[in-house]
Design brief:
This is Transmembrane protein. Keywords: Membrane, Transmembrane, Transmembrane helix. The chain has 240 residues and is mostly helical. The chain has five helices and no strands.
Amino acid sequence: MTPPNELPPPPPAPDERPWKDRAGLLDARARAMGALARWYLAPHRALLLWLSTLVFALGWSLAVSGFQFLVKGEIIEHVLGVIFLGLALGATVPSSLGVVSGIRRDVFVGACLRDWAELERDPRTLPHWRVSGGALLWLGPSIVLACLGLALGGFAAFSDVGTESVGTVAGIGLVFVAAGALGMAKAIDYYRLVSRELRPDGGPDAYGPDPLDPDSGYGDGFSGDGFSADGFSDEGFCSD
């Protein structure tokens, strides 16, 4: 997996672009989008989000229990309340900071991915940056998590559970919905890029030279695997 500080930056300004022809642009675009998309939809990032969600939900439960102990007015309950609140801080603060950091990275990488996508549009290079099954891995469990959160919220609102349990159940439901929404938003964002790439737009010329035309020059600079034969590399790609 490419480290975050080695990911491709946004594409250069029009007057600073080094590509001499469309083939070079498509080559650089496919490489950059491939690196960005693989990081954007990495399975371990989904696991980190779900793990952080569970840890935060646990911290929320401990915090509610801690406050309930504190308001009972007994010394033992006060001690237990302080302990529970300390554990809650230990669970919620790191997990929330991790989620916020991940969201910031996702926003930056997603913006870079969209900027590269908007440079051109050619479905023939899609296999070089499409992450097979990556978006589905994010979308499916995120839908389940959001539905579970909505079910917990509905249970807390319409059932006869005690007032001490309503805050816990409703809070956990809200956390699950938020995490599910984050995962679904990322998957939908990626599906939109793929759909844009495949969308027809006025016939063969919509994507530039016809690859079936030997005089089109489309294949210039490409090797058999679809990337440039001149040794184009990812060297120099980095992100802040």
